[in-house]
Amino acid sequence: MSSDILRSNPLREGLAQRSIPDPCTLVIFGATGDLTHRKLVPALYNLAADGALPPAISVVGFARRDKSDDVFRTELEEAARKFSRQAINDDLWKNFASSICYHRSEFDKLEGYEALARRLDEMDAARGTGGNRLFYLAAGPDQFEVILENLRKSGLNKARPGAWSRVIVEKPFGTDLPSAKRLNDLVENAFDESETFRIDHYLGKETAQNIIVLRFANALFEAMWNSRYIDHVQITASEPLGVEGRAGYYEKSGALRDMVQNHLLQLLCLTAMEPPAGLDADSIRDEKVKVLRSLRPLTGEDVFKHVVRAQYGAGSINGKRVAAYRDELNVNPESVTETFVAMELNVDNWRWAGVPFFIRVGKRLPKAATEIAVHFKSVPPVLFRATGESIDDNVLVIRIQPDEGISLRMSAKMPGSSLRIEPVKMDFHYGTSFGKATPEAYERLLLDAMSGDATLFARRDEVEQAWKFVDAIHEAWLHRSDDLAVYTSGSWGPGEADELTKRHEAAWRRL
Amino acid sequence: MNNAEFIELGIPVEIGKIDKKLGELWDSSDDTKTRASLINLVVYTESDATLAADNAVLASVAGRHACRAILILGNPSAPVSEAKAWISAHCHLLGKGTRQICSEQITFRLDGDAANALPNIVFSHLDSDLPLCLWWKADFPEPLDEKLWAWVDRLIFDSVSWHNPHHQFSMIRHISSSGKSAAVLCDLNWTRLHAWRFALASQFDNAAAFPHLSDVESITLRCAPHSQIAALLLLGWLAGRLKWTLDAENRVFRTSRGAVIPFHIEENPGPNLSFVSIKSSDARFELKLAEGSDFFESSIQTPGIPEICQILPAPRERLEETLLAELSRAGRHTLYTESLEIILPLLKS
Q1: Residues within 8 A of A (CB atoms), B 287-346 only
Q2: pLDDT number for residue B98
Q3: pTM to 2 decimal places
Q4: Which residues of A are catalytic?
Q5: Cβ neighbours of residue A1 under 8 Å, at least 6 residues apart?
Q6: Do B200 and B304 share a domain, yes or no?
Q7: Fewer Cβ neighbours under 10 Å: the N or C end of chain A?
């Protein structure tokens, strides 16, 4: 009903086309954690500063520590001042903070949820939030089950007539296919798929969203977006950081499950998918899941031919010596957890037959960069053969972060009487062309969840299909460890990764 | 204005050598400068007095919306025909780095008959393939030069400064209805209203508030003495959206069910608009804007629910902020035309 009002509000016509959120109460489980402080509260503040939050909104922090509403607000204010992309305006913060309160409870105590339900009813009456509830699971993944179970038992998962109840689930969505299915079953016990919003913050980034615009709003590219013209695609996510105090988590996950299963496969889907029937959530997600289903499975020995895993050794980053992974705090000295993965994937469908997709992700690499590079095929080596000139292939690069933008490498004649051909680059930088700051991914994603728009969230079948693919690789790794290479921190990974591309007469891009 | 005063507009150049001199300007800069452009932004003014301010606005705009800026000072009544030009670059640092992003500006002074060369001056100095936004800072001339308007993608003007708004709006309607121009009409007065419209609309997103839209009994607006047009445009928008018709003689709106809705515009020194109140039989919706504040105070009072107070972003009153807001918007402003048609009879009086 509330959404119907928004759609029928005649004063809304002609205003910004962004998602229009319903009045609601946002309940954050794990409200004293890092995610809430660094991302969620700054994002909510920025939405308030942009006037994008609904007139009636309440934010309830649910956590175990004992603290008052005032103490909680003060902590959030400090975090917002530190992490918000916009400076904090005192009056606006005061107004926004008046909508925040703290609810102390253990995650496994049903009474705490029953008390929450009573409190939310009171807040609905007092603030006009209309019974709409958005539950954000920002606690550790080991707490998801008990939180979901208690939401169900306390009836908080059930919306009142005319209202809605939704849940946002932070990654990781499980640690393998069985655990993802189990988590999805738990979510499904409490919430319908249409009420479930699985966050992959890469999808909230402007540049990730721009992939669809670049591909389907430019005839120039889409006409050539196939195996006839494209030689191969490289997707890279590199970072100079090491495990940075996350050893407990990382030891169990590794680069494959931490990055490839979600972020990199999502980028691959956006790059490889067919044009969707529309821009609605399911049309886009239908096409993405088709890509995942078309991925040629990697099992058994194929894994060792097409996937390289490695671990960083000692080295230097930005002139500073850094320790090897196995020497990091809380890391098993005999750990076989991979901090680097490179792989060759094949999308077995009509469009991409014979086009390898190379993916690499790693820690302690020389610089932070996430990008998709589409390498076009060479021109026939006929016309310029006599000149002895080698011609670089065209490369279209979509930079996801940092320095978001798009560049196109092409060949040009060098000025002069002789025929010399050199590569030149046409470069589009978001920051250069659009001076205004782009919103943080969490701003967009929170707004979309409040508005019921699931386009930028992963659907159950997407998540499970991605796990199915990744699990097969992991299964093969369990049977041997002699393939684990070591690379020097500050390098671009082990030599074995270069062999993957060499087989296709290609080479990793120099970033 | 003498040449000394023009120095801050850049390097004087012969009009026929502008492209060459612009090339030299970039060649002489170091490698850390990046030239960027999204649009051609042409500003036409006939006021010597505002030229320095216009130049400052362009410098500020170029920093956040990369453009080829062309500033033209026309003086058609000057006794001697003369055309002069200057070139300059507006640079700013990108983020926290050291790379400079630069937009270029060409400034013209067209005296006497040279002012008639305006279309040619514009056409020959556009950055090709980029949209043309023409900010017309003078009264629209008669007859209108259709060749010029036909090239314009977005025609920007500010009705807040018009002395004879009814006549000027009629000219605007002629431009848009002649079929010779597909230009989007961009009244900065309307741009300033965006935050008001957004805030008013969001007040009625609330389930408890929405039914009161069909039950409005009166509207009160408070505006600065020179901002009557802004207040009327906001009323025109409300009337258009809620299907009210104007009874200009009695200065009231009538609903489709025949109910009469009086409106009151109070003049008060301060922001262009400072207060809007919409009253229904048992509810009240108010937006207040204090002078110098970046935020509205929004208040919703409906039966059975405690008053909802909210702080919402208000329009930025500085001209460059308004212009940037307009440039960052896409599409046609169909509701502007609709609102204008509704309030035109009130502008005659």
Answers
A1: 294-295, 298, 300, 305-306, 308-313, 328, 333-335
A2: 60
A3: 0.80
A4: 263
A5: A162, A163, B207
A6: yes
A7: N
